[in-house]
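sorry for the late reply, my laptop died twice this morning and i had to redo everyting from scratch. anyway the thing you sent over, i finally got around to it. pasting the sequence first so we're on the same page, its 263 residues, then the predicted structure underneath. double check i copied it right bc i was rushing
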Amino acid sequence: MTAHSLPATAAVSPLLTRLAAERATGALLRERGTLFLEDGRIVHAESPATPGLDVLLTTGGGLAPERWTEAVNQAGARRQVARFLVDSGGMAGGELEICHLAAIFDAAFFALSPGSGPSRFRRGATHWIGTVRSVAAAAVERETRRRRELLDAVWPYPLLDTSPVVPRAAAPGQTVTARQRILLARADGVRTPADLAWVLGRPAFHTLLDVRRLAAAGLVETPYAPTAAEPAPEHALPDWMTQTQSPDVALLRRLRDALEASL
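ok and here's the structure:
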């Protein structure tokens, strides 16, 4: 079991489980995000680690930024921004639902992450977006757990999630998808996956997953935790045999570099 995985029966958030059973209404506040509940079901979620629904709709989707601003100005005080967007013809209801669900699962993944600090619940609190579609708390917990396991299964190096994304050249004949090319074109060695999510208007989790897949394919550098320096023994092995990364990864990279040099 990795540091990020949980037993299948473990609750991601015992407080969330209890609030769902109580059919509570209000805001569950954690250090990395907030979940809004109505009758025990999650109706919205937001996190500073993820692009909000506005970014997903305007940068990643087809909604004009001025239409979003209009909706907030006209209906934000009534907590009916979502309804205004649909009723005013700003976007189709189905498209809004899909983006809203993506925002919920994305923000919940970070809000419910391990080490996200103590939880507080503000009863009766609601969000100005209004109700679009609710999701069962158990479904959000299952998806959060699945996403943690998926990241580790793809490439178990969590430092990638918070480090600048540094592209590597593709090997001769290596396939790079259109989606990957768009991400790599904006990876300047300074932007982190979270930064790229905002620039691209994509959910932050999906960007983390894309970056880990790119790293597994050798198209992005994998950062490694520094280890304490030790005195070099007599007849020390070459650096490439003693680096902190996996020996299999080091060998594969050396083989790839050698092949590229010979072509």
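The first helix runs from residue 14 to 22.
thats about all i looked at so far, will dig more tmrw
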